[in-house]
Amino acid sequence: AIDSSGCIPSLDPYPHETIEAALLREAFEYQLLYHKENSSPPCAAEARFREIESSIRSTGTYDLTLEELQYGARVAWRNAPKCSNRSKWNELHVLDKRTVRTNQEAFDSVLDLLDKSLTSMATKTYMTVFR
Q: I want to staple 64 with a disulfide (CB 3.0 to 4.6 A). Which of 5, 49, 69, 104 is the partner?
């Protein structure tokens, strides 16, 4: 669970929660952190909450925006205690390949990553995200 003081580890903090309720809670917790750390206006966060809730209730899932995905990847790196390079967490670039469906598309995505890495002319950190 996440509250104002951060993450509170627990084996089963919500023992009677349904899968949908857990997904909604976790999505809202993530959105609270995202909007708080990005200083989003309250109306933007509320609109996103409504969009997520509608999607979860109608489809059982929701998709992160590219900005939310990149932020989540960066925060995961920032919070990795054993990573010696985590001071560069804010420089991580996410390549969104969630639409890839075939082996050829996956292969082309890997080539794209290699191309970006080799032609950037500077050290950049990339992460490719597949579904």
A: 69
Report the alpha-carbon distance of residue 28 to residue 42 in Å, rounded.
13
Consecutive H or E run containing 46: helix 42-59
Rounded Cα–Cα distance for residues 62 and 82 (Å): 31
State how far the Cα of 48 lies from the Cα of 67, in Å rounded to an integer. Answer: 13
CA 61 to CA 31: how far, in whole Å?
A: 15
7-16 pLDDT, tens digit per residue, is: 666 677 788 9
In eight-state DSSP terms, residue 128 is: E
SS3 content of the chain, % helix, strand, coil (to 5): 55, 10, 30
Q: Is 51 left (phi over 0), alpha (psi -120 to 50) or beta?
A: alpha
1, pLDDT greater than 60: no
- Position 118 confidence tier, pLDDT thresholds 50, 70, 90: confident
